[in-house]
Amino acid sequence: ETGVTQTPRHLVMGMTNKKSLKCEQHLGHNAMYWYKQSAKKPLELMFVYSLEERVENNSVPSRFSPECPNSSHLFLHLHTLQPEDSALYLCASSQGISGQGFQYFGAGTRLSVL
Amino acid sequence: LAKTTQPISMDSYEGQEVNITCSHNNIATNDYITWYQQFPSQGPRFIIQGYKTKVTNEVASLFIPADRKSSTLSLPRVSLSDTAVYYCLVGELGGATNKLIFGTGTLLAVQP
Questions:
Q1: Which residue, A8, A67, B26, B28, could crosslink A75 as a Cys pair with Cβ 3.0–4.6 Å?
Q2: Residues of chain B positioned with their CB less than 8 A from the CB of A98
Q3: Under DSSP, is residue A85 helix (H, G, I), strand (E, B) or coil?
Q4: Sorting pLDDT into bands at 50, 70 and 90, what band is A57?
Q5: Which residues pair with A31 in a beta bridge?
């Protein structure tokens, strides 16, 4: 248990569905991240939130919509996904976004798009 | 952005010491060197972080030469449960201008 909880752990959805991934951190951190990890590929940084403000969007398609209502919660809203979006989606948190420090990761949500 | 290069895979046996080296020729003055461990279908887990010289914790040691263009993660007496992918990251934490990039990592396979 790393202090970062992701739900659901597994999700299967059709291309026309709308679903949301949830991440909650219990570490008192002020920064949160979404990563995508496809099979046999490196982790790809998707979004970074610092103090509930989005500070990074790595050219992610608009069918992925993040939301950070407070410093403890992060959501990734999904709609009209494509089969190539099937991957492990990882949430992470950290204290600050600069200088020394490291990220705590959740266990991820395994997403399958049919 | 500091790019890292590490071996794709390594094999070892239980009880041996394993050293994984990462090259980062373009490391910047403000960059830290961080290593993570990842098991299948789990998120990466922080192992160790350093800036220069040597750092040791209860899990591993990190050796960084004076020029900081490389670093070596040392795992003492590995066990089967140490089989995982190990990532070397160089940079400042997150942020809009300094992105921590996870490469392909090193798949360490520990055999009995």
A1: A67
A2: 92-95, 98
A3: helix
A4: confident
A5: A50, A94
The whole-angstrom distance between residue B85's C-alpha and the CA centroid of its chain comes to 9
**Ramachandran region of residue B77, left (φ > 0), alpha (ψ -120 to 50) or beta?**
left
How far does Cα B77 stand from its chain's mean position? 17
B51 and chain A in contact, CB less than 8 A: yes
pLDDT digits (tens, 9 = 90+) for A15-44: 888 999 999 999 999 999 999 999 878 888
Residue B95 and residue B61: Cα distance in Å, rounded? 27
Token couple for A19: 């679903």
* B82 backbone dihedrals φ, ψ, rounded to 5°: -85, -5
d(CA A36, CA A5): 16
Q: Are A86 and A111 in contact (CB under 8 A)?
A: yes
